[in-house]
Amino acid sequence: MGVFDKLFGGGKKVSKETMETRGDHMPDLKIPVDEKFTIYFKKNGGKFIYCENEVEISDALKNIISENNWQNHLFHTLDDRLENRFSSKKIKFTQDRKQSDILFTTCEHLIAHDGSILVCSNQIQGKKLNELPSNLIVYATTSQLVDSISEALKVIKEKYKNNIPDNITTLKHFESTAENKNDFLSYGSASKNVYLLLLEDY
What we know:
Blueprint: H1 3-8, H2 16-21, H3 33-43, E1 47-51, H4 54-68, E2 74-76, H5 80-86, E3 92-94, E4 102-105, E5 109-111, E6 116-119, H6 121-124, E7 135-141, E8 145-146, H7 149-160, E9 169-171, E10 193-199
Parallel strand pairs: 1-10, 2-3, 4-7, 5-8, 7-10
Antiparallel strand pairs: 5-6, 6-9
């Protein structure tokens, strides 16, 4: 079984033609959350890399760095856990935004309904989306996949109890297209070059 068969659960597939001929406001097809997220994330302009283990995560990072000639670039991160986890992979980190145009971050959830990435002050502190670097590498796990924003907010409320983080927002429309240029939900956000490293953790 290939990695995408594993990711998509091996269930009934939805044809590309069916997805392309449905309007944006049509009800969602009854497809698995992981497959739905992948379809919409790619439609938003994101680059999706599914990894089964930490070795594949490391290989994917090396390929991203090589593809973009980032060997001598500093990676901006606001998450000490990422810095501790990946500093041995010959990645140099900085917490000074002015020194880097690459943000390496985690997220709270991956929203299948629209292929967006939900972040909050835990990942971006008090920054607005247009203040983030133009290149983003997001490290996430399959257990962070949820169907909707309301489901994600419910999990956040349960997880953080009385200490709910602020600046909760979604990263969406990574590339400006004819379909999304007038979407008021993405107003004020700049186009981003987004890579998603998705680690299987089920």
